[in-house]
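chain below, 525 aa
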Amino acid sequence: MLTLIQSWLDWCFKTPLKSRISLFLSGALFPLAFAPVNLWPLIFVSFFFFVTALIRSVPLSPFKIGYYWGLGCFLVGVSWVYVSIHEFGYVPVLGAASLTLLFVVFWAFFKGVFSYLVIKTIQMSSRSMVILIAPTLWVLSEFLQSSIFSGFPWLLAGYSQIDSPLSSLATWFGVYGLSWFVVAIAAAIVCGLTRPEGRLYWGVAATLMGVALIARVTLTDTAAIKQQTALNEKNSLDVALVQPNIAQEKKWDRRYFAEIIEILFQESEQLWSADLVVWPEGAIPAYAHQVRDITYDLQQRAIQNNSHLILGIPEYDQARELSFVALKSFGEQSQTYHKQVLVPFGEYVPLEKWLRGLIKFLDLPMSGFTPADVPQVPMQFDNFTVIPAICYEIAYPEIIRELSAVNQSANKASPQLIVTVSNEAWFGESLGPYQHMQMARMRSLELGIPLVRSTNDGITAVVDARGTLIKQLPRYQQSSLRMSVPMTNFATYYRRWGLAGVYTLLAISSVFIVLSVWYRKTKGS
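prediction:
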């Protein structure tokens, strides 16, 4: 069996052309481990080829190994960028394809840098150290990907494992730590199949997976007990989510404004008895100060029914001439939350001074927003506290975690629910909405807090404290979803300590890598 695998790998990496094709195709497998395909074992197949190329003699430069893998990964994984640019930015096919390819090449470049650094570090230590070198540098590359130019935390390896036996590791280490384990296990499998001392590496892989299974059993038992306790004590929240299904081309067309408002009011008519009603991002397509009559009406309805409404609406600060993407609550406690991370080229244009013409070229109607310029806090109501998150923000684990800790530090009620709103119409029928929903589920799992999500045309859903999708509406359907959500609230290790867990993994790995380099250097001299 091992001989057959070795022969197959020899054939795949025999020539530069075969190596490029093999790496490109293995990279293309990577996104299939994510939603909506959800074949999570494929990530190990993808990494098997990638890591194999990193530790064997391949007729490509160290940079090109990662670059070609990255091209396959991002060309498939972020193909929704083309849909957004072409179908909703109204850019011709050639222009949209060119912009998408430029985006793909940009992120593939970082995978090339990753492979270059891994190979150079292996050359200074040993091939066996790939088990620590690859996951450590991979997580560092994910940190970089999540922060450069406001970040693009998409296709982080850990997300693919939300439904796998490894998922509970996220409650200890977050999605970045889960990524570390995925790459480490893949590297151990590669070494087990290709290195002379293979049995040792199978033991390493088994140990890592054993840790994951222990974490899963612990989390499952704890979450189940707390969730059942919440139900027994009737500690649940009656939540109603509205999905208006407004076509994107109508959204900001003033001719359809009255129709949009009528749909929202009609869909909510039977929902005011709920504890919390949620409308999606940008539900009212106007600045808040332009529709005070509508918001006053909503405020009165919420108060009369002893309910609360949270909706997305843009705000304009006339004194400072600044626009914000906002969530506003209506009821006895009226509050406002401003979006902290904006979507590049959607809500703001990076380097706008030099790229001002791009706004007109891409037909971006709402691209002049400013991120929140003061610290944001959870929304505190009489009987419950929620963590607000607007669209893209849910992809940033530390932003959501920090909000979960704000009230605890202020000796107030700990947040019991994550409320996230979005408008996925920009993505059309593509991978984007499903990948986005998967990220939202991970936030629930990491923090041990249930989540509700209201969107314009889907995916509108409820997620429990274990990250399990328990109810959702069909896409492209005007409807509402109402259910009692158990206010399960258990503080996971990640919620308490944040990135400390993954930093510990990186620190321990780095110590062993440095020792290996030192030993190799000392032995050589």
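The first strand starts at residue 236 and ends at 243. The two ends are 39 Å apart (CA to CA).
thats it, cya
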